[in-house]
Design a protein that fits this description.
Phosphorylase Kinase, domain 1; three-stranded antiparallel β-sheet; 276 residues; Transferase(Phosphotransferase), domain 1; 9 helices; five-stranded antiparallel β-sheet; alpha+beta
Length: 276
């Protein structure tokens, strides 16, 4: 059982935050709201178990902070401190991020969106992915819980803890994580996630926003086989009112072959910005 009083005291000392309050708690993580230098922030605490699993958790937490610190985009959540290790041996990794208002997409995808909202989703997240892809980083878990829509309507990528650096595979490993229903064909065992894999996941988000359905049902028993071998249906099959321009973009994002999709976030954004 975590002694939250002791933990908050340690966080105040290590990170220079105050007015801590628990936002969410579960598993290996506790997230606090707090104030730092007069700014509302979020403090993330990842507990480190003993043994080899602890080494993996520790490396993943440091990698998340390193990646966030390297990316400069209004469409990727900002990290405000380095990762700090509490206690010795390490009991927890802690850091501070900007606090985003609004809500994640798990609620918003319960209704059909209009075209302008979907274009904003594609453009904003395309820009966020472009900033990651320029650094040779693949997010690998572009699911509704990892995207926030702020009160101003801006879409922001969060939680790249499962990301993979294409130039540092020895650190990030070959395991392909992700959320069922929002995975790409390359997420299937034996696959190799690339920037175009994030584009596929973004296409799923856009498809869901337009239709309130997944293009490939994750509940079916042969989900992975279908995902890896069957072309996803066109969004026009569910939304005949969608314009040709938007339908073509979503369908291209969802192409079975990575080389036939937009190759990265930058290419997607260029296409969207070319619309009249």
């Amino acid at each position: 059982m975590v002694d939250l009083r002791q933990l908050t005291d340690e966080l105040e000392s290590a990170l220079g935050v105050r007015s801590l309050g628990v936002l969410t708690q579960g598993g290996q993580k506790v997230v606090f709201t707090a104030e730092m230098s007069g700014q509302e922030v979020v403090v993330k605490v990842v507990f480190v178990p003993q043994g080899p699993q602890g080494d993996l958790v520790r490396a993943r937490a440091h990698r998340e902070v390193e990646l966030l610190g390297a990316v400069d985009s209004p469409h990727v959540v900002k990290v405000l401190t380095d990762a700090v290790e509490l206690s010795s041996p390490v009991d927890a990794i802690v850091w501070v991020e900007e606090r985003l208002d609004g809500e994640d997409l798990r609620v918003a995808l319960g209704r059909a969106w209009d075209e302008s909202a979907v274009r904003s989703l594609l453009t904003d997240l395309g820009k966020g992915l472009a900033a990651c892809h320029e650094l040779e980083v693949v997010h690998r878990d572009l699911s509704p819980g990892n995207v926030r829509k702020t009160s101003s309507g801006r879409f922001v990528l969060m939680d790249p803890g499962l990301a993979r650096h294409l130039e540092k595979t020895a650190i990030t490993g070959p395991y392909q994580p992700g959320t069922d229903g929002f995975r790409s064909p390359e997420h299937v065992p034996g696959g190799d996630c690339v920037p175009a894999s994030d584009i596929f996941a973004l296409g799923i988000l856009a498809y869901c926003a337009l239709t309130c359905e997944l293009p490939v049902d994750a509940r079916q028993p042969d989900y992975e086989v279908t995902l890896a071998s069957v072309q996803a249906p066109s969004v026009r099959a569910k939304r005949s009112d969608v314009s040709d321009e938007l339908a073509n973009v979503v369908d291209r994002c969802l192409h079975l072959q990575p080389a036939r999709r937009y190759l990265d976030g930058g290419e997607l954004v260029l296409d969207l910005e070319s619309w009249s």
